[in-house]
Design goal:
By secondary structure, the protein is of the alpha+beta class. The chain is built from two helices and nine strands. It has a single domain, classed as Immunoglobulin-like. This is DUF2271 domain-containing protein.
Amino acid sequence: MKKRLLLGAVAAVLLGSAQAANVPPSASMQIEFELPKLEVADYARPYVAIWVEDSGGKTVRNIALWTGKDTEWLKDIRRWWRKFGRYQGDGIDAYSSATRPAGQYQVQWDAKDGEGNPVTSGDYTLYVEVVREHGGRDLVRQPIQLGQQEFSMSSKAKYEIGSVTLSYKI
């Protein structure tokens, strides 16, 4: 009986350490998406937030934030604001930039957390939230599994954002 318990404990430690392994240092994700040209009377460039959360819903990394000059409107990026912005909005200069016109875009994520450390292998969710003044709001929520396997996937297009394509490379 003691032998079985000992073997079980050793297996749990080994499995735990295997699950906590970091993604390879060379890992990265390319995120491609489109901001469609909308034929509306009062078009404003959209605010865009792209970030990653862990399986517990904690923000791991803010990848991009495209906003106007007036940060008062950041709260309109609702999901991002509720999860991160209202609590830690002071450091947004590190990853924010100006809004962009309609077109195709790519951003890179180096598979590191906000501290610059490689993330551990496991389940995450990538979010892309797009909000336009006098317009709509779309949220793409894409579950991803990071580890030793490369993958590519695409989401369906929505009104304020075209399809989002992810390409994870090691």
